[in-house]
């Protein structure tokens, strides 16, 4: 393992440990996760790192269809010479959030400003031919405003609505550069132990000649539906995306995560993804991946 890669991986582990050390073994409700219930709001602290999206390491992540020649509809972003990637790699993700401002519209109207960061990597650690490179890393900072919307219709419970800005890129140069910026709207509900979060978005336009991936909405979608369910030591999460178009622009994806808690916050983790956009470099590439590893929250 090269020294820079080792240092990067060590920093990843230390940051993950810091974030999850603040979590508890009980699976939080959406209101607790976003400090919208009365107990959480009384204890809220700005600028404290908290868990956001799943934090995991998949020691073996297998794909049915290796993307040897990443391409985009922008002619400047097409790889001409196939790259000899392996179909098994290591994948990991780190993600955290922090509250920046509390009740910006006052106690009655509320409104909390949050910042978040998610980074996911695909590492060809088993590929001796290419000297074990990082195949793809996606960086995703975001900021958003959330409002509590408590109401009940039978077992259907409203929790929050909000909107924010999201940037996602892989930090690479052409022909491998991929990126987009979005305004994301979101709403969260709970039905018994099922958590539901809906996120439609609008992509912010870019100059045509500078757009790494002009058709990304038709593959990575225009909306996302996130369903989470937990019982005992078992956690399930299903995330689906779709382009919301028909015909040859109808594309989508689904990702299922399952984890089993066996030592406090340490879990056995399995993940299955199918469809388009497993990562930004694969935004228009259709594949199914299966991974196994551990997660920390």
UniProtKB/TrEMBL annotation:
One of its GO terms (cellular component) is cell outer membrane. It is an enzyme of class 3 (hydrolase). Ca(2+) 1 binds at residues 131, 177, 212. It catalyses: a 1,2-diacyl-sn-glycero-3-phosphocholine + H2O = a 2-acyl-sn-glycero-3-phosphocholine + a fatty acid + H(+); a 1,2-diacyl-sn-glycero-3-phosphocholine + H2O = a 1-acyl-sn-glycero-3-phosphocholine + a fatty acid + H(+). Residues 1-21 form the signal peptide. CDD domains: OMPLA. SUPFAM superfamilies: Outer membrane phospholipase A (OMPLA) (SSF56931). Gene3D superfamilies: Phospholipase A1 (2.40.230.10). The active site is at 167 (proton acceptor), 169 (nucleophile). It is found in: Cell outer membrane. Its EC number is 3.1.1.32, 3.1.1.4. One of its GO terms (molecular function) is phospholipase A2 activity. It comes from the Bacteria. Its cofactor is Ca(2+). Binds 1 Ca(2+) ion per monomer. InterPro entries: PLipase_A1, PLipase_A1_sf. Homodimer; dimerization is reversible, and the dimeric form is the active one. Belongs to the phospholipase A1 family. This is Phosphatidylcholine 1-acylhydrolase. It comes from Aequorivita sublithincola (strain DSM 14238 / LMG 21431 / ACAM 643 / 9-3). The lineage of its organism: Bacteria, Pseudomonadati, Bacteroidota, Flavobacteriia, Flavobacteriales.
């Amino acid at each position: 393992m090269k020294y820079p890669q080792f240092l990067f991986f060590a920093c990843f582990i230390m940051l993950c440990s810091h974030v999850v050390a603040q979590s508890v073994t009980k699976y939080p409700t959406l209101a607790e996760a976003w400090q919208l219930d009365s107990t959480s709001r009384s204890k809220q602290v700005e600028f404290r790192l908290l868990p956001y999206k799943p934090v995991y390491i998949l020691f073996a992540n297998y794909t049915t269809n290796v993307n040897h020649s990443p391409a985009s509809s922008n002619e400047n972003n097409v790889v001409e010479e196939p790259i000899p990637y392996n179909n098994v790699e290591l994948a990991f993700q780190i993600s955290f959030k922090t509250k920046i401002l509390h009740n910006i519209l006052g106690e009655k109207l509320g409104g909390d400003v949050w910042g978040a960061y998610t980074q996911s990597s695909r590492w060809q650690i088993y590929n001796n031919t290419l000297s074990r490179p990082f195949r793809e890393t996606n960086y995703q900072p975001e900021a958003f405003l959330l409002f509590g919307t408590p109401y009940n219709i039978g077992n259907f419970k409203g929790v929050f609505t909000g909107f924010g800005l999201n940037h996602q890129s892989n930090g690479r140069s052409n022909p491998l550069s991929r990126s987009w910026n979005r305004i994301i709207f979101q709403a969260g509900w709970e039905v018994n132990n099922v958590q539901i979060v809906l996120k439609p978005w609008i992509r912010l336009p870019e100059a045509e000649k500078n757009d790494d991936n002009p058709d990304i909405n038709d593959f990575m979608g225009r909306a996302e539906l996130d369903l989470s369910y937990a019982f005992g030591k078992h956690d399930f999460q299903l995330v689906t995306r779709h382009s919301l178009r028909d015909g040859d622009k109808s594309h989508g994806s689904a990702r299922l995560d399952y984890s089993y808690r066996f030592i406090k916050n340490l879990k056995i983790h399995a993940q299955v993804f199918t469809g388009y956009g497993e990562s930004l470099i694969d935004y228009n590439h259709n594949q199914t991946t299966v991974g196994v590893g551990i997660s920390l929250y």
